[in-house]
Structures are given as C-alpha cells and as structure tokens.
What we know:
Elements: E1 14-18, H1 21-24, H2 61-69, H3 77-80, H4 84-98, E2 102-106, H5 109-112, H6 123-138, E3 142-148, H7 154-160, H8 167-183, E4 189-193, H9 203-207, H10 217-242, E5 247-259, H11 264-286, H12 291-299, H13 308-316, E6 321-332, H14 338-341, H15 365-379, E7 383-387, H16 405-423, E8 428-434, E9 454-456, E10 468-470, H17 472-482
Parallel strand pairs: 1-2, 1-8, 2-3, 3-4, 4-5, 5-6, 6-7, 7-8
Antiparallel strand pairs: 9-10
Helix pairs in contact: 4-6, 8-10, 10-13, 15-16
Amino acid sequence: MMRELKKGFPEDFLWGGATAANQIEGAFDEDGKGLSTSDMAAYKDPYAGESVNNFTFNVNSIELEEYLNNPDKYLFPKRWGIDFFHHYKEDIALFAEMGFKTFRLSISWPRIFPTGLEEEPNEAGLAFYDNVFDECRKYGIEPLVTMSHYEMPITLTQKYNGWVSRELISLFEKYARTLFNRYKNKVKYWITFNEMNMNLNSLYTGAGVLEDKVDNVEEAAYQASHYQFIASALAVKAGHEIIPDAKIGCMINRIESYAKTCKPEDQLQALKADQINTFYPDVQVRGEYPNYMKRFFAENNINIEVEERDFEILKEGTVDFVAFSYYMSHVTEDRPDAKEIAGKLDSPIKNPYLELTQWDWPIDPIALRISLNKLYDRYNIPLFLVENGLGAKDVVSEDGKIHDPYRIDYIKKHIIEMKEAIKDGVELMGYTTWGCIDLISCGTSQMSKRYGFIYVDQDDKGNGSLKRIPKDSFYWYKEVIASNGENLGE
C-alpha cells in the first residue's frame, strides 16, 4: 500500500535559528581564548569598489603579519561580534519567546584549545558553553552545534598553513572528542564542518590556508578538503561511540545550478557544476570518492596525497544527515571560465526571471524545493536546512520599531517551498534561519547587512548600545513556529 501523502511539517520539526561563534560571541581575548583565523578579518569598506560584495574574509601572509604586529591600526568586527558572550542569557530568552525548538551555534576551537596544540583543554572555555547549553535546556531548546565554523586557532595557520597539513587531523579529532565527552548529556545534534565547499571560494576562510603560500590553489583546496573529510569521519565515529544516540551531519552551501539555455553543452555544464557542489556530501554520505571527481582530478592535473587507510576511515565515519545552507540559485553555460564559475558564491550570469536582494543575490524559493528533492533523491537520508535568510539594511522607525516586511516575505516563500518538498516525500528535519539575531556579516564583516529577527544596536565600526529590539519578523516567526508552519500570515 502506498504511503499516505504528507500534508505539512512533521510534529517534531525543529524550527529555530542559526549563528556562528565568530560572528556573535565577541570576548576574543577573554577567559584564555586564543586568536582565530576569523579574528584576522579586518573591516574594509564594502562599497569602496564596484560591488557591494567586497569580501573581506580572505587574508594573505603579508596581511596576517601586519594584523598581528599592528592590530590597533585596523578594525576587526568579528573580535567583538554582538557580545553574545555576555548577553547569551538575554538572547536565548528571546529565542525562547519566539518558540525555538533548536538553536544552531558553533563552538570556537581556540576557546577550547587556544593554539590547537595544547594537550589539555581550556576549562574556562568549556564552562562557557556548558552555561549556554544549560540556558538552552532551561527553555527546552535543542542545541545544534557546529564544531568548525570558519574559525580555527591562528597558530595552526602559522605553524602548518592550516588544513593543507595532515597534522591537523589528529588535532581536530582531539578537539572533537573533548566536545563529545564534555557535552554528551547536553548536545544531541552536531555538524562537523560548516559549508566545507567554501574551500573552493576562500581557502583561508574554510581551511585556514594562506593561498600565497601554496603553489597550486585549486590542488591545495582539494588537499585541505581531503584532510577535513578524514577528520570529519573520525569525529563522526568518535561521536557515535561516545554519544550513541547522537545525530551527526555534514554541511555544504547548496547552489542550485540552471543551464542558461537548452543547448546540450550548457546542460552538461550545469551537471558538472552540480557535481562540484554535491562532491562533498557524496564523500561524507557514501564514504568514498565519486568517479566523476577522479576524472576531474586527472583532467585538471590535481594530485592529492592520500593514505590507504583513509578509504577505510571514510567508510567508517559516514554522516547521519545532510545539512546545508541555501540562499540563491546560479546560472551557468558552456564558456571558457565555466569551471571557475562552478561553486562560486555568485555567478556573473544573471537570471532575468529573479529579483535581487540589496546585495545582488538572486531570490529563488522554487530552487530550494528543487534542491531538497535532488538531495533527498541522491542520498535518501534526512536533510536539515540550517541556513537561509535575507540580508538587508534595516531601519529603526520613528515609533522605535523595525518594520521588515521584505524579510517576512522572503522567509515565507521559502517555507512554502519547504512544505511542498515535504509533500514531495522529502524527509526534512528542521529549519534554522541564518542570523536569527543581527550579527557580523561573514563575507563583508558588516553589521549593517542584517539578517535577524532581533535588531542589535551597533554599527559597522562597533559603536552602539547593543540593545536588542525584536523586529516585526520576530512576532511573525513566533506565529509560524506556534502553528508548525501553517500560519504564514496574509
């Protein structure tokens, strides 16, 4: 007998919001925390060039030395975040008021192991997250914890040039086992690495690698990815041993690629772009490298160092679910730079059927439904949409409130398509909107690019009272959660 059609979100659907330690915590030098790679992302005027997408997360060796030697000459917004470190009780109470079932956050590796090289963890750092998780539990909120979200001890970049060194595998496994043992009674849901395919966009951001210190950046990206695959698999295996009922996932930035035309060569290029995007979960779900990547490596003269034992490790450490972020779709075509476009954050080929955000990101809710179907068909394990949201310039009105109907409209349209995908048969665990509280932008280190349901009074240079003010979307999302996605407003 055919299974009954699902009509809506499951009763145990995990509604919530997502953040990252390097974008909210602040207190970069308190309680023994070491410097991270994100602590080196200096603020640069995002409007100085031709595009508002003036990404600031890349750091080269010359800049790193300058920032280390002359920190007072620069602004480092990710060092202050929104001071979640001192405001976590207030913030979690607001999440609880919205009705969050889950709160996605990350742990700062250098808050636990300041240089990454210590034999024993920093107790003050561990205690901070104990307090955060206890506060979540007080309100019945399940923590969803990312172990590595675009920050690692800067010492590991200086000593090993980040993840191009195999030495980091054992250091990460030590870190992961420390987290599992400490929080085994407090955290059930884990993600090993945030958006691992970011290595193809910024090696420094995703892997702590100084690109000017490697001979072949593309080869280095895949070498770093391989070592992260092994580290992730070892972490998954350890997590299942230490916390038998834990659910541990991988994560990518999902990019749905359309062919520009029905020209067969354009269609083939769209397929190749999709393969580059799904390469990461292909390895982490199936425990082996896909054949299409073997051809890609051969044709692009990419040679990565692999040990025979690695393939066994990959098989032993496959993930329980696939987590992903979704912000936009891309358009691709058969052209000389097609390979370079595949996997990048934004495509130079614009889709005439889509509206753009203030940061020129195409808005495409239907592509989310397409992606959900494709990913579930491909892996047949649960999916978790752990980032999705609209960055916009919010303004405090004369009435002291923040009216953000554009954000409500954006999220509502994506929730509608999630519901349609569930009707299609997709098993979706939950939905955590990105930046549920305003935070420092990953790409541009801005505060003025706001995603949250909660406004934080702070400008791009760190000035402000840090007062938290619920936006209109706060009350709207509260009703969405209370109705389990049925009440989306007019």
